[in-house]
Design goal:
binds magnesium ion, globular, binds ligand AR6
Length: 308
């Protein structure tokens, strides 16, 4: 693959994730019907991005500054970037508070949910930069995705979900759409994910209700990561995959973000509708880290990765 195409795919993954997040944000928690009526006049991007993108930015910033994974630094980036109004999950909010108070990044996340740790999708939703940075080395990708998740999500299902999402982004970046499910199947250890990934092929003609029943659409990583992979594989364009993911209702911003990351890594930034890019830039004009900044992060990851 020529390097320019790969550069566009780096941008596509990060920008695609932010676009999916912002499109899903106003309909988070809605039913299929409610999403349909909110967007009945067309899929216009009208919102800011949420915690999904704010944390993805932190992951990218840390990889760039440290030239690889550094847990303590990544935790500091999450704390520095935190804005409560971007709607963080309750578990993550608590962990970030303890990290800010000085707890070690390998310890703080183990305290939530009665010591079980979180299996929410909050680690998977932000993991795209790791999928890009380690796309050519699956063993390292898998290990680093688990470690980067552990900062806030220490439950094995939270970590495995993030690793599956990171690997899906890497496979999409490498153009491996056909072999994606086989490659994932060969890596996944946890039964709930193995089971759902193995169903995807058979569900291609399912209606939305059945799809939700089989794969899920909520905040648990195992009820949303397989759904994002399905949304990517079910269609042949960035636009169709992302609007389908959001049309399922439930955790729309995060399923939108994860579908956008995989699809953006596959199709490249050019495939993202220009109106969505313009609206994303406009929504963040008042001080957030917007489109140009996210593109710059992607370019930096690319530059460091390929030493150019
Ligand atoms: N036991 C029971 N419920 C759990 C457990 C557990 N061990 N782990 C997670 N949950 P959280 P996130 C449920 O709070 O993953 C934002 O809007 C529990 O209901 O760690 O960072 C994002 O945009 C918990 O509240 O947050 C995402 O959409 C929920 O999973 C979403 O929230 C999320 O886990 C995920 O955020
Ligand atoms: Mg969110």
């Amino acid at each position: 693959m020529i390097k320019d195409a790969l550069r566009s795919r780096f941008r596509g993954a990060l920008v695609g994730s932010a676009v999916g997040d912002a499109l899903g944000a106003p309909v988070e928690g809605c039913t299929i019907e409610e999403v349909g009526s909110f967007y009945e006049n067309g899929w216009e991007l009208k919102s800011h991005y949420t915690d999904d993108t704010e944390m993805m930015i932190g992951v990218a910033e840390s990889l760039i500054e440290r030239h690889g994974f550094d847990g303590a630094d990544m935790a500091r980036k999450f704390i520095r970037n935190y804005h409560a109004w971007r709607h963080y999950g309750p578990g993550t909010r608590a962990v970030l508070k303890w990290l800010e108070a000085g707890e070690h990044w390998e310890v703080a996340s183990k305290r939530v949910f009665n010591g079980e740790g979180s299996y929410g999708n909050g680690a998977a939703m932000r993991i795209a930069p790791i999928g890009l940075f380690y796309h050519d080395d699956v063993d390292t990708l898998w290990e680093i995705a688990h470690k980067a998740s552990h900062i806030t999500h220490s439950h094995v299902l939270g970590k495995e979900g993030a690793a599956i999402q990171a690997y899906s982004v890497a496979l999409a970046l490498r153009g491996q759409r056909e072999g994606m499910l086989t490659c994932l199947g060969a890596r996944i250890k946890e039964g709930i994910y193995r089971n759902k990934i193995s169903k995807i092929e058979r569900l291609m003609d399912a209606d939305r209700e059945l799809l939700i029943e089989e794969l899920g659409n909520d905040e648990a990583a195992f009820n949303s990561v397989p759904t994002a992979i399905f949304s990517f594989l079910r269609f042949h364009s960035f636009y169709e995959s992302v609007i389908y993911a959001i049309s399922l209702g439930g955790d729309t911003d995060t399923i939108g973000a994860m579908t956008g990351a995989i699809s953006g890594a596959y199709y490249g930034e050019e495939a993202i509708p220009q109106e969505w890019l313009t609206a994303l830039a406009k929504a963040e004009d008042e001080g957030g880290k917007g489109l140009r900044y996210i593109e710059w992060l992607a370019d930096e990851l690319y530059r460091i990765k390929f030493n150019v």
